[in-house]
Each structure stands twice: as C-alpha cells, then as structure tokens.
Amino acid sequence: MSDYDTDVLVTAEWVEDHLEEFQSDDPAYRLVEIESPTPPDNEFPSLYSEGHIPGAIGFNWAEDLSDQDQRDVLKKDDFETLLGEHGITEDSTVVFYGDGHIPNWFAVFAYWEFKYYGHEDARVLDGGKDYWVENDYPLTEDEPAFSAQEYNARGPFESIRAYKDDVDKAREADLPMVDVRSPEEFSGELIAPPELDETAQRGGHIPGASNVPVPTNLQDDGRFLPPEELRELYAEAGIDGDESVVTYCRVGERSAIAWFALSELLGYEDVHNYDGSWTEWGNLIRAPIAKGEQ
Fold first, then answer.
1. 249 catalytic, yes or no?
2. How far is CA 172 from the centre of its chain?
3. What pTM, to 2 d.p., does this model score?
C-alpha cells in the first residue's frame, strides 16, 4: 500500500494479522462493520448478525451514525457517547469495512465522519466485507462487549465538508465538482438508484459537475484502483489536485468514496464532501440543475 499517499487503506491480510488486538478489551485497536440502511419492513437479519470479522463492532449508518432529529451527521456529544460506549478512545486505531453492492459503501462515509470529528488513526479495509468473505477469511456471530471508555472529539473540522454555500462559490469560481452517481442519475433519467427511495423532487446534476461514477474507482474485486490509475481517472475529469474539489452524490455516502480516493489515497489537499448532495440540491427552490450526459 506504500504507493498511495498515506497508509489508511489496509489489506485483508493486515486485518487478519491483527485479529487478536481487535478482540482485546484494550482500546488500542477497534474494528467497525458499517451496515447499509435497510428498509423498515426488512424481515431479514442484519448482515452483521449473520457473521462478521472477529472483534468487529456493528454500526448501522442510518441508526447509529446519523442524527435522528435532522438529516445530518451525529452531533458532537452523541458521537462521543457512541464511541465511548463501544470501547473506542480518540487514540484507538479504528478500521472500517462494510457491505453493499458498492464495497464499503457506507464504511467510507463513517471514516469521513470520524475525520470530521478529528479522529487521527482511522483506516479502511480494502475491498470491504465482500472481499473478506469471498477470500475465506474468518467470520463469527459472537458480538464483542468492550469496556466503556471516555471519548473526547477534537473536531469538527469543517475543511473536509462542503455546504450549499460552498457549492455556490465553487460554481462561481468554475472549480471542479465530481458527481459520483450513476450516469442515469447524472442525466436525470433516475432520481435515485432503483433499490433506494427517491429523496429529491427533481432529477439531473449540479451545472458544471463531471460524472465519475463511484464504481470506476474500484477494481473488479472491490479493492481500490492502483494510485496511477486513480490519478488518470480523475485527470480525465479535469482534476489533478491543484484546485479545490467538491464531491457529491445522493446523500453523501458514495461521494465519500471519491473524497477518500482524492484526499486520502492520492493526497490532494483541498477536497470537500458535500453530504447534503442531491437530496438537498434537488429539493431547493431556485437551485439550477442540468440534465443529460456530460
């Protein structure tokens, strides 16, 4: 992994080598599985409860990492409480992985949220749960019960986040914006992926944005492209790390993967995830939209 700008992407072999530490009550290492949101009438057990990496804590993105009173990340106090209750401290090495038809779909958003609140040593399992399962690494149904800890967040650090006003400024300055949704969502043919609820009233994309669908960041086995291929992918969209970049999708989770690729793997210094994304923009009165292919 040394070819990337940082070592925040870890291999399945690395995680397997640290399973003893992940299962220890010592908070130095923590492993977190992030489940994708499930429909309210879903009668099937969670993928976490059916089997997870030994020592992994299970968080659901919608239930555990989102504010239940408004569409937002957790408030700082709630974030600190959640992590402390699950035996995580600000000094823990925390590794995320997740499920979904896009590997690590919501796990990378969790990484971004942890970085927003200033957690220093956060990492992502390359390939996510599918890669782990398909390559016959161990699973368990035993859920860990770690001793509670005190967690004190350093953030929030707004420099990695974009709001509607930031998008307006980016448009005025003709700065690059990356829409990571599918071509059908980008063109306005679809408002949301077929398996998800529509959260916006209009389809299309933010004028000036380039479409770089999030699966193009990944190899066939779900692991990230090598760094030179990632650079080439984004260079074709006019992004070389010299300017400020805004990434967005439907609710900010897929775009966190593009943010991660640009900011954390390639080391581009001025990358912002617009987590309001199309759910906000597609519902705004008087917000301009564009339709059709790029």
1. yes
2. 27
3. 0.95
